[in-house]
């Protein structure tokens, strides 16, 4: 009896010790993981108007690719968000890349040329410099952010500086491994890559379409959850245009004198089955064309469509109207007057 009560007496403090240990652990955890800051966009622009989401992270650990909204606006192994501008003309103009939260500058790199890299040989020459000119920032709660492909010579911060959210880090560029001018945003938590829209580890595919724990502000979250198709530009010309020229900033001009009249449309993040309705109204008021393109056989990240007539391109004001048709209804449209110069 005496033995048993001694055992009980010993057990009670032991149980108390466990409770205290758990409380202490919780305190340590609370200390080690303070609240993460809310994030905003890494680019100072109007999303969907003068800058666009071109690619999201790939959250699928397998060789297939899936974006955080369970779609395909990504490619295998892509580990960040790509916010693009239209062309190198925007790089020349200077679009600020900005910090997504208050933080301290950890590292920078500058001195990598701005180029559009389309072939494998050029890509090989960039090994180890894929990010191009970049900035790494450290934020509250063990969060870091990385910004890639900035314009050469534009980096406006130095390691050790503490800068508030929205501070200009540099300008958007196309340095490193970039097929178009953009900023690639990568986010890490305690050194591990995470997907900021879902708030989960980067390759946690179970987070797809469940961005409730996301790190972005509610406003930004809503912007990023929208479908990311967009018409970047449209216009009129007299000969079939090609896509690489558009990114370089050389969209064709409407010059009177050609023997055909074409309307073109440049769009991103198109889906299988999407079509374009392309209309041109002649300066004399007649409808020159009203054509609908064939449905796309598969998703297109970046696409150029055109349609036209063999009628001469004459001096005067044309009207061009473009609808992107998704499931038969306009998902987005662009209407414009185009002055053809004689
Ligand atoms: Zn990227």
TrEMBL record:
It comes from the Bacteria. Keywords: Signal. It holds the Pfam family Peptidase_M23. GO terms for molecular function: metalloendopeptidase activity. Residues 90-196 form the M23ase beta-sheet core domain. InterPro entries: Cell_wall_metabolism_enzyme, Dup_hybrid_motif, M23ase_b-sheet_dom. Transmembrane segments: none annotated. The keyword Signal applies. Residues 1-32 form the signal peptide. This is Peptidase M23. It comes from Aureimonas glaciei.
């Amino acid at each position: 009896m005496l033995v048993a009560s001694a055992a009980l007496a010993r057990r009670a403090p032991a149980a108390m010790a466990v409770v205290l240990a758990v409380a202490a652990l919780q305190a340590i955890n609370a200390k080690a993981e303070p609240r993460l800051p809310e994030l905003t966009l890494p680019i100072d622009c109007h999303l969907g108007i003068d800058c666009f989401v071109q690619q999201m992270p790939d959250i699928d650990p397998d060789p297939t690719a899936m974006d955080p909204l369970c779609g395909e606006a990504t490619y295998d192994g892509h580990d960040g968000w790509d916010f693009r501008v239209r062309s190198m003309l925007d790089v020349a103009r200077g679009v600020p890349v900005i910090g997504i939260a208050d933080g301290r500058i950890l590292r920078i790199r500058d001195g990598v040329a701005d180029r559009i890299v389309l072939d494998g040989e050029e890509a090989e020459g960039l090994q180890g410099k894929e990010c191009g000119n970049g900035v790494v920032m450290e934020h509250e709660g063990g969060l870091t952010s990385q910004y890639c492909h900035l314009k050469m010579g534009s980096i406006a911060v130095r390691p050790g500086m503490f800068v508030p959210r929205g501070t200009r880090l540099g300008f958007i560029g196309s340095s490193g491994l970039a097929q178009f001018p953009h900023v690639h945003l990568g986010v890490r938590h305690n050194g591990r890559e995470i997907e900021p829209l879902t708030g989960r580890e980067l390759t946690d595919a179970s987070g797809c379409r469940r961005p409730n724990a996301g790190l972005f502000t509610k406003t930004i979250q809503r912007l990023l959850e929208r479908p990311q198709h967009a018409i970047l530009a449209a216009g009129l010309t007299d000969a079939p245009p090609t896509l690489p020229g558009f990114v370089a900033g050389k969209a064709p001009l409407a010059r009177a004198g050609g023997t055909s009249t074409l309307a073109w449309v440049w769009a991103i993040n198109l889906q299988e089955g999407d079509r374009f309705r392309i209309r041109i109204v002649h300066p004399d008021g007649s409808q020159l064309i009203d054509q609908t393109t064939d449905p796309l056989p598969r998703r297109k990240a970046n696409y150029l469509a055109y349609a036209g007539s063999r009628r001469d391109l004459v001096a005067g004001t044309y009207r061009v109207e473009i609808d992107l048709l998704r499931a038969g209804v306009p998902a987005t449209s662009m209407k414009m007057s185009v002055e053809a110069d004689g």
